[in-house]
Amino acid sequence: MYDNDLTAVVEADRSHVWHHMVQHAGFASKDPRIIVEGRGLSVWDQNGREFTDAVSGGVWTVNVGYGRESIANAVRDQLIRMNYFAGSAGSVPGALFAERLLTKMPGMSRVYYANSGSEANEKAFKMVRQIAHKRHGGRKHKILFRERDYHGTTLGTLSACGQPERHMQYGPLTPGFVEVPHCLEYRAQWDLSGEAYGRRAADAIEEVILREGPDTVGALCLEPITAGGGVIVPPEGYWPRVQEICRKYDILLHIDEVVCGVGRTGTWFGYQNYGIEPDFVTMAKGVASGYAAISCCVTTEAVFDLFKGDAADPLDHFRDISTFGGCTAGPAAALENLRIIEDEGLLQNTLTMGDRLLGHLQALTEKHAAAGEARGKGLFCGLELVADRATRAPLDEKSVAAVVAECDRRGVILGMTNRSLPGLNNTLCLSPALTVTADQVDMISDTIDRALATVLG
Ligand code: PMP
């Protein structure tokens, strides 16, 4: 722990830093939190208080846990040798990580580097648009996205955002993005269940395609499991039908693995739970577990081939660049991150501990009237809170936040979903590091149990 006094740091932060996602008025009466150190699942704040982080850095990122010296060393060695070169040149870790990553993604073939999840998604959107111009006279340019899904913070990705509160003050948005219905059976839009529900929710995508005109739709972008929009695991029957629809109308399937990617659900990628064959896979957070900023837009060779174009025309290529796509720290960290997941058997641990965590959360739904539904896959779980169990009326946001605050007071950092639809910001989010132990899982769910009892009685 830092043994020096951090008062000056806290004051510098309060005076000069514009924090993400927070109403700053609160800092007049309460110090901003500064996280100063981390080890495993533990983090310490400026006052030396230890917390167990059940959301991997607040937003599903630190998959291998804090304090990994081997990643720091890999990055250090790489930076001293060669830190950065951009443009059309490659790098040693960039080549080695791409090769290694693709061994985990049969059917995928090319890795395009960027720095954030939003940017990786923008790359895929731009590729879709360029394909529309190159091959379809500009017509197949529309990109479908799903209600409650999130794909990023830029104006392009916000235009593909199924959470109205995220974009309501940022219009006008980019044209050419069209919403399809969500697939959460707990808040059913059709009077069906299980596999039939999944097929029906996918059919709703086809209805949108037919309404828009299949010759205008270039791609469908979906999270394998919706994250911030409510931890929504699609029902059986959904994905096979989605794939079938995309093939039927020659629509490229873009899977946003920014949260689910790199082990979070117990497989390398979330889509691999469902036997889908995507055309684009985007990833960011867990790629280097937050040890460096890196994201990837991965495509098939068939997509890459569409850009080969006229070898004699110097402008006939994907006309895009990211300055910091040339940083070598990202792929160096990502390579070591992947090795850790493999050598420490973290996919298996994710499956075992994920089952344990989901089991505990399901038990809470039997014990607490407010615990409506527990959902999840691997170490990616949500607990939807309700005001009324019978009607499933959502618990109000203030009460959900009070449960999160009570867990925090008891030393466990949890997340909660965004306002995915009006009045729907009522799901607790859990995504501990993939190294989590049985004792830690038990302690985290025990804390939620106590917090629910304290706050909601
Ligand atoms: N896609 C998904 C599914 C996300 O959850 C996020 C971020 N929470 C993003 C994309 C955007 O990633 P970033 O914040 O790195 O731009």
Model description:
This protein is α/β, with parallel strands linked by helices and 457 residues long. It has two domains: 33-62 and 345-456, Aspartate Aminotransferase, domain 1, CATH 3.90.1150.10; 70-343, Type I PLP-dependent aspartate aminotransferase-like (Major domain) (Aspartate Aminotransferase, domain 2, 3-Layer(aba) Sandwich). The chain is 37% helix and 16% strand. It has 14 helices and 16 strands. A seven-stranded mixed beta sheet has the order 4-10-9-8-7-5-6, sandwiched between helices. Strands 11, 12, 13, 15 and 16 form a five-stranded antiparallel beta sheet that branches. Helix 8 (194-212) runs parallel beside helix 9 (238-248). 49% of the residues are buried. The mean pLDDT is 96. The structure holds 4'-deoxy-4'-aminopyridoxal-5'-phosphate. Residues 59, 116-118, 121, 150-153, 223, 227-228, 256, 258-259, 284 line the site of 4'-deoxy-4'-aminopyridoxal-5'-phosphate. Belongs to the class-III pyridoxal-phosphate-dependent aminotransferase family. Its cofactor is pyridoxal 5'-phosphate. Keywords: Aminotransferase, Pyridoxal phosphate, Transferase. Pfam families: Aminotran_3. This is Aminotransferase class III-fold pyridoxal phosphate-dependent enzyme.
